[in-house]
Design a protein that fits this description.
Length: about 120
């Protein structure tokens, strides 16, 4: 169970959508899926730090109350002042740790734009 006092950080989950402009070209945009309070958990063990050193990105694990529809095609943005420097993170794995749909653990990594 997620305790309310642990959820000190506000995050916005966004979903990508594609529409066409008048010329028929695709336009990609991020739309707000949900805004929630979350707890930032310590990353579990040395495996994550070892993989982060290879990739140059450090993952973050968030715990929040259950929310249907969260997928690894989404991203999240930290909205609170204490986390404002964390930037945009790509969701890597949203999981229901105990199968009871009470809490959601999201592993995310800082978003890095692809080079052209």
């Amino acid at each position: 169970m997620v305790r309310a006092g642990e959820m000190r950080h506000q995050v916005q989950l966004q979903v990508r959508s594609t529409v066409q402009d008048p010329a028929g070209e695709p336009i990609h945009a991020w739309n707000i899926f949900a805004t929630r309070r979350a707890a930032i958990q310590r990353t579990p063990g040395q495996e994550i730090f070892a993989s982060a050193q290879r990739e140059g990105r450090v993952p973050v694990v968030l715990k929040l109350r259950w929310l249907d529809g969260v997928t690894d095609a989404m991203r999240l943005i930290f909205l609170c002042r204490c986390c404002s420097g964390r930037g945009v993170h790509d969701i890597k794995s949203p999981i229901d740790p105990d199968g009871r749909r009470e809490e959601l653990l999201i592993t995310a990594e800082e978003h890095v734009e692809a080079s052209p």
